[in-house]
What we know:
Keywords: DNA-binding, Transcription, Transcription regulation. It is a single chain. By secondary structure, the chain is of the alpha/beta class. It folds into 3 domains: 3-85, Winged helix-like DNA-binding domain superfamily/Winged helix DNA-binding domain (Arc Repressor Mutant, subunit A); 92-160 and 265-299, Periplasmic binding protein-like II (D-Maltodextrin-Binding Protein, domain 2, 3-Layer(aba) Sandwich); 164-263, Periplasmic binding protein-like II (D-Maltodextrin-Binding Protein, domain 2). It is 42% helix and 23% strand. The chain contains 9 helices and 11 strands. It has helices at 3-15, 18-25, 29-43, 59-85, 106-116, 129-138, 199-210, 224-232, 278-299, and strands spanning 48-51, 54-57, 92-97, 121-126, 143-146, 155-170, 190-194, 216-221, 238-241, 252-256, 263-271. The strands form 3 sheets. Strands 3, 4, 5, 6, 9, 10 and 11 form a 7-stranded mixed β-sheet that branches. The longest helix is centred in the N-terminal third of the chain and has 27 residues, at 59-85.
Amino acid sequence: MDLDDLRWFLVLAETEHVTEAAGRLHIDQSTLSRALRRLEKSAGSELFDRGHGRLRLNDAGRVLRRHARRALDELDTARDRIAALAEPADDTLALVCAPSLGAWLVPGLLTAYRQEAPRARITLRQDAAEHVLSLLLEGAVDAAVTAPRPADDRIGWLPLGEEPLHLAVPERHRFADRTRVRLAELADERVIIMRRALGLREVTCEVFHRAAVTPSVAAEADDVATIMAMVAAGLGVSLVPAGGGAPTASGVRLVPLADANAHRQVGLAWREGRAMTPATRRFRTFAAQRATAVEAARAHGLSEPA
Length: 306
Protein backbone atom coordinates (compact mmCIF):
# COMPACT_ATOMS: atom_id res chain seq x y z
CA MET A 1 0.00 0.00 0.00
CA ASP A 2 1.27 3.45 -0.95
CA LEU A 3 1.84 5.83 1.96
CA ASP A 4 0.19 8.77 0.20
CA ASP A 5 -2.80 6.57 -0.59
CA LEU A 6 -3.09 5.73 3.11
CA ARG A 7 -2.84 9.38 4.16
CA TRP A 8 -5.46 10.38 1.61
CA PHE A 9 -7.66 7.51 2.76
CA LEU A 10 -7.61 8.83 6.34
CA VAL A 11 -8.85 12.22 5.16
CA LEU A 12 -11.53 10.57 3.04
CA ALA A 13 -12.55 8.40 6.00
CA GLU A 14 -13.01 11.57 8.04
CA THR A 15 -15.03 13.51 5.46
CA GLU A 16 -16.78 10.58 3.72
CA HIS A 17 -17.03 12.88 0.70
CA VAL A 18 -14.67 12.78 -2.30
CA THR A 19 -15.08 16.44 -3.26
CA GLU A 20 -14.47 17.71 0.27
CA ALA A 21 -11.51 15.38 0.83
CA ALA A 22 -9.92 16.28 -2.52
CA GLY A 23 -10.29 19.97 -1.73
CA ARG A 24 -8.67 19.54 1.65
CA LEU A 25 -5.80 17.57 0.10
CA HIS A 26 -5.45 19.94 -2.88
CA ILE A 27 -5.65 17.11 -5.41
CA ASP A 28 -8.06 16.24 -8.23
CA GLN A 29 -11.10 14.14 -7.40
CA SER A 30 -10.06 11.66 -10.07
CA THR A 31 -6.63 11.27 -8.43
CA LEU A 32 -8.28 10.56 -5.08
CA SER A 33 -10.73 8.10 -6.64
CA ARG A 34 -7.89 6.18 -8.29
CA ALA A 35 -6.02 6.05 -4.99
CA LEU A 36 -9.11 4.63 -3.30
CA ARG A 37 -9.47 1.96 -5.97
CA ARG A 38 -5.81 0.98 -5.51
CA LEU A 39 -6.29 0.66 -1.77
CA GLU A 40 -9.44 -1.41 -2.12
CA LYS A 41 -7.71 -3.69 -4.60
CA SER A 42 -4.76 -4.12 -2.24
CA ALA A 43 -7.05 -4.69 0.75
CA GLY A 44 -9.21 -7.15 -1.17
CA SER A 45 -12.38 -5.41 -0.06
CA GLU A 46 -14.39 -2.26 -0.56
CA LEU A 47 -13.67 0.23 2.22
CA PHE A 48 -16.79 2.38 1.87
CA ASP A 49 -20.47 1.78 1.26
CA ARG A 50 -21.53 3.94 -1.67
CA GLY A 51 -24.91 5.54 -2.20
CA HIS A 52 -26.77 8.81 -2.69
CA GLY A 53 -23.63 10.68 -3.68
CA ARG A 54 -21.81 10.01 -0.40
CA LEU A 55 -19.50 7.42 1.04
CA ARG A 56 -19.94 5.61 4.34
CA LEU A 57 -16.94 3.95 5.95
CA ASN A 58 -17.71 0.24 6.36
CA ASP A 59 -16.28 -2.37 8.74
CA ALA A 60 -13.29 -3.08 6.49
CA GLY A 61 -12.63 0.64 6.21
CA ARG A 62 -12.71 1.08 9.96
CA VAL A 63 -10.16 -1.71 10.37
CA LEU A 64 -7.85 -0.10 7.81
CA ARG A 65 -8.31 3.34 9.36
CA ARG A 66 -7.21 2.08 12.77
CA HIS A 67 -4.13 0.29 11.46
CA ALA A 68 -3.25 3.00 8.93
CA ARG A 69 -3.12 5.61 11.67
CA ARG A 70 -0.90 3.38 13.76
CA ALA A 71 1.40 2.56 10.83
CA LEU A 72 1.79 6.17 9.74
CA ASP A 73 2.44 7.29 13.32
CA GLU A 74 5.15 4.64 13.63
CA LEU A 75 6.74 5.74 10.36
CA ASP A 76 6.68 9.37 11.45
CA THR A 77 8.31 8.37 14.72
CA ALA A 78 10.99 6.39 12.89
CA ARG A 79 11.67 9.35 10.61
CA ASP A 80 11.96 11.69 13.59
CA ARG A 81 14.30 9.33 15.44
CA ILE A 82 16.52 8.95 12.39
CA ALA A 83 16.58 12.73 12.03
CA ALA A 84 17.49 13.01 15.71
CA LEU A 85 20.67 11.04 15.06
CA ALA A 86 21.88 13.87 12.88
CA GLU A 87 20.25 16.60 14.93
CA PRO A 88 22.17 19.89 14.84
CA ALA A 89 23.66 20.92 18.15
CA ASP A 90 21.59 24.11 18.12
CA ASP A 91 18.24 22.34 17.61
CA THR A 92 16.86 23.15 21.05
CA LEU A 93 13.31 22.93 22.39
CA ALA A 94 12.30 25.91 24.52
CA LEU A 95 9.55 24.82 26.91
CA VAL A 96 7.63 26.81 29.53
CA CYS A 97 5.17 25.89 32.27
CA ALA A 98 3.45 27.54 35.21
CA PRO A 99 4.93 26.90 38.68
CA SER A 100 1.96 24.76 39.75
CA LEU A 101 2.73 22.35 36.88
CA GLY A 102 6.47 22.15 37.38
CA ALA A 103 6.26 19.43 40.03
CA TRP A 104 3.75 17.16 38.26
CA LEU A 105 3.95 15.48 34.86
CA VAL A 106 6.68 17.76 33.50
CA PRO A 107 9.67 16.17 35.33
CA GLY A 108 8.58 12.63 34.44
CA LEU A 109 7.84 13.60 30.84
CA LEU A 110 11.23 15.24 30.35
CA THR A 111 13.09 12.37 32.03
CA ALA A 112 11.38 9.83 29.79
CA TYR A 113 12.11 11.94 26.70
CA ARG A 114 15.80 12.21 27.55
CA GLN A 115 15.94 8.42 27.77
CA GLU A 116 14.31 8.23 24.34
CA ALA A 117 16.40 11.02 22.80
CA PRO A 118 19.56 11.46 24.89
CA ARG A 119 20.99 14.06 22.50
CA ALA A 120 17.93 16.28 22.73
CA ARG A 121 18.47 19.74 24.15
CA ILE A 122 15.63 21.26 26.17
CA THR A 123 15.48 24.54 28.03
CA LEU A 124 12.69 24.65 30.62
CA ARG A 125 11.51 27.82 32.26
CA GLN A 126 8.72 28.57 34.69
CA ASP A 127 6.70 31.73 34.51
CA ALA A 128 3.50 33.13 35.96
CA ALA A 129 0.49 31.39 34.47
CA GLU A 130 -0.83 34.58 32.84
CA HIS A 131 2.50 35.00 30.98
CA VAL A 132 2.86 31.45 29.65
CA LEU A 133 0.53 31.85 26.67
CA SER A 134 1.94 35.29 25.86
CA LEU A 135 5.43 33.80 25.64
CA LEU A 136 4.08 31.13 23.30
CA LEU A 137 2.24 33.57 21.03
CA GLU A 138 5.23 35.92 20.90
CA GLY A 139 7.54 33.08 19.83
CA ALA A 140 9.72 33.32 22.93
CA VAL A 141 9.20 29.58 23.51
CA ASP A 142 8.38 26.64 21.25
CA ALA A 143 5.81 24.91 23.46
CA ALA A 144 4.09 25.20 26.82
CA VAL A 145 2.61 22.81 29.34
CA THR A 146 -0.70 24.40 30.32
CA ALA A 147 -3.91 23.89 32.25
CA PRO A 148 -6.69 24.25 31.34
CA ARG A 149 -6.94 24.14 27.55
CA PRO A 150 -6.34 27.64 26.12
CA ALA A 151 -9.44 29.32 24.69
CA ASP A 152 -7.51 30.71 21.72
CA ASP A 153 -7.75 29.23 18.23
CA ARG A 154 -4.20 30.42 17.51
CA ILE A 155 -2.95 27.78 19.92
CA GLY A 156 -2.85 24.04 19.23
CA TRP A 157 -3.24 21.74 22.22
CA LEU A 158 -2.56 18.09 23.01
CA PRO A 159 -4.10 16.59 26.19
CA LEU A 160 -1.43 14.92 28.34
CA GLY A 161 -3.29 13.88 31.46
CA GLU A 162 -5.71 14.73 34.24
CA GLU A 163 -4.35 15.91 37.59
CA PRO A 164 -6.72 15.40 40.55
CA LEU A 165 -7.53 18.30 42.83
CA HIS A 166 -7.49 17.82 46.60
CA LEU A 167 -9.10 19.86 49.34
CA ALA A 168 -6.55 21.65 51.52
CA VAL A 169 -7.85 22.17 55.07
CA PRO A 170 -6.32 23.21 58.41
CA GLU A 171 -5.21 20.18 60.41
CA ARG A 172 -7.94 20.74 63.03
CA HIS A 173 -10.69 21.22 60.44
CA ARG A 174 -13.79 19.01 60.55
CA PHE A 175 -12.73 17.43 57.22
CA ALA A 176 -9.09 16.82 58.21
CA ASP A 177 -9.56 13.14 59.04
CA ARG A 178 -11.97 12.34 56.22
CA THR A 179 -10.93 9.96 53.43
CA ARG A 180 -12.99 11.90 50.87
CA VAL A 181 -15.07 15.07 50.71
CA ARG A 182 -17.81 16.05 48.27
CA LEU A 183 -17.79 19.54 46.78
CA ALA A 184 -21.42 19.99 47.87
CA GLU A 185 -20.18 19.87 51.47
CA LEU A 186 -18.18 23.07 50.91
CA ALA A 187 -21.23 25.31 50.47
CA ASP A 188 -20.75 26.84 53.92
CA GLU A 189 -16.94 26.96 53.84
CA ARG A 190 -14.75 30.00 53.28
CA VAL A 191 -12.74 29.24 50.14
CA ILE A 192 -9.34 30.62 49.14
CA ILE A 193 -8.72 30.75 45.38
CA MET A 194 -6.14 32.04 42.95
CA ARG A 195 -6.61 35.56 41.65
CA ARG A 196 -8.18 36.20 38.27
CA ALA A 197 -6.23 35.48 35.04
CA LEU A 198 -4.48 32.47 36.58
CA GLY A 199 -5.17 29.02 35.15
CA LEU A 200 -5.89 27.33 38.48
CA ARG A 201 -8.54 30.01 39.21
CA GLU A 202 -10.37 29.09 36.01
CA VAL A 203 -10.16 25.37 36.80
CA THR A 204 -11.41 25.87 40.37
CA CYS A 205 -14.39 27.96 39.27
CA GLU A 206 -15.33 25.43 36.60
CA VAL A 207 -15.14 22.53 39.08
CA PHE A 208 -17.42 24.36 41.53
CA HIS A 209 -19.80 25.31 38.70
CA ARG A 210 -20.17 21.71 37.55
CA ALA A 211 -20.93 20.69 41.12
CA ALA A 212 -23.60 23.45 41.34
CA VAL A 213 -21.75 25.03 44.26
CA THR A 214 -21.17 28.78 44.62
CA PRO A 215 -18.08 29.17 46.82
CA SER A 216 -17.84 31.87 49.44
CA VAL A 217 -14.49 33.43 48.53
CA ALA A 218 -12.53 34.45 51.60
CA ALA A 219 -9.28 35.47 49.92
CA GLU A 220 -7.32 35.39 46.67
CA ALA A 221 -3.64 34.55 46.20
CA ASP A 222 -0.97 34.67 43.50
CA ASP A 223 0.46 31.18 44.02
CA VAL A 224 -0.27 27.82 45.62
CA ALA A 225 2.36 28.29 48.33
CA THR A 226 0.54 31.40 49.58
CA ILE A 227 -2.77 29.54 49.49
CA MET A 228 -1.30 26.77 51.64
CA ALA A 229 0.00 29.31 54.16
CA MET A 230 -3.45 30.92 54.34
CA VAL A 231 -5.08 27.53 54.86
CA ALA A 232 -2.60 26.70 57.64
CA ALA A 233 -3.50 30.01 59.31
CA GLY A 234 -7.17 29.00 59.33
CA LEU A 235 -8.33 31.61 56.81
CA GLY A 236 -10.23 29.06 54.75
CA VAL A 237 -10.01 25.92 52.63
CA SER A 238 -8.88 25.55 49.02
CA LEU A 239 -8.74 23.24 46.02
CA VAL A 240 -5.12 22.54 45.13
CA PRO A 241 -3.31 20.23 42.67
CA ALA A 242 -2.72 16.76 44.08
CA GLY A 243 0.22 15.75 41.91
CA GLY A 244 2.96 17.77 43.55
CA GLY A 245 1.84 21.23 42.47
CA ALA A 246 0.83 21.97 46.07
CA PRO A 247 3.87 22.38 48.34
CA THR A 248 3.66 20.67 51.69
CA ALA A 249 2.81 22.99 54.55
CA SER A 250 2.81 22.44 58.28
CA GLY A 251 -0.69 22.49 59.69
CA VAL A 252 -2.42 21.54 56.42
CA ARG A 253 -4.14 18.30 55.42
CA LEU A 254 -4.90 17.33 51.81
CA VAL A 255 -8.17 15.42 51.44
CA PRO A 256 -9.19 13.73 48.14
CA LEU A 257 -12.43 14.91 46.53
CA ALA A 258 -15.18 12.41 45.71
CA ASP A 259 -16.48 14.32 42.68
CA ALA A 260 -15.57 12.80 39.30
CA ASN A 261 -14.91 16.22 37.75
CA ALA A 262 -12.50 17.36 40.47
CA HIS A 263 -9.39 17.49 38.29
CA ARG A 264 -7.62 19.72 35.83
CA GLN A 265 -6.75 18.75 32.27
CA VAL A 266 -3.07 19.36 31.51
CA GLY A 267 -1.77 19.55 27.96
CA LEU A 268 1.00 20.60 25.60
CA ALA A 269 0.37 23.83 23.69
CA TRP A 270 2.05 25.29 20.60
CA ARG A 271 1.44 28.20 18.23
CA GLU A 272 -0.64 27.21 15.22
CA GLY A 273 0.32 28.63 11.84
CA ARG A 274 4.00 28.85 12.72
CA ALA A 275 6.62 26.50 11.29
CA MET A 276 7.33 23.91 13.97
CA THR A 277 10.98 23.13 14.62
CA PRO A 278 12.08 19.48 14.28
CA ALA A 279 12.81 19.40 18.01
CA THR A 280 9.29 20.59 18.85
CA ARG A 281 7.68 18.14 16.44
CA ARG A 282 9.64 15.21 17.87
CA PHE A 283 8.77 16.19 21.43
CA ARG A 284 5.08 16.56 20.58
CA THR A 285 5.03 13.11 18.95
CA PHE A 286 6.72 11.58 21.99
CA ALA A 287 4.38 13.37 24.41
CA ALA A 288 1.33 12.07 22.53
CA GLN A 289 2.61 8.50 22.57
CA ARG A 290 3.49 8.67 26.26
CA ALA A 291 0.08 10.11 27.16
CA THR A 292 -1.58 7.21 25.33
CA ALA A 293 0.66 4.68 27.10
CA VAL A 294 -0.02 6.21 30.52
CA GLU A 295 -3.77 6.17 29.93
CA ALA A 296 -3.66 2.53 28.81
CA ALA A 297 -1.56 1.53 31.83
CA ARG A 298 -3.96 3.21 34.25
CA ALA A 299 -6.95 1.58 32.56
CA HIS A 300 -5.38 -1.80 33.33
CA GLY A 301 -4.41 -0.87 36.88
CA LEU A 302 -0.70 -0.73 36.07
CA SER A 303 1.89 1.83 37.05
CA GLU A 304 2.86 4.52 34.59
CA PRO A 305 5.52 3.61 32.01
CA ALA A 306 9.01 4.62 32.96
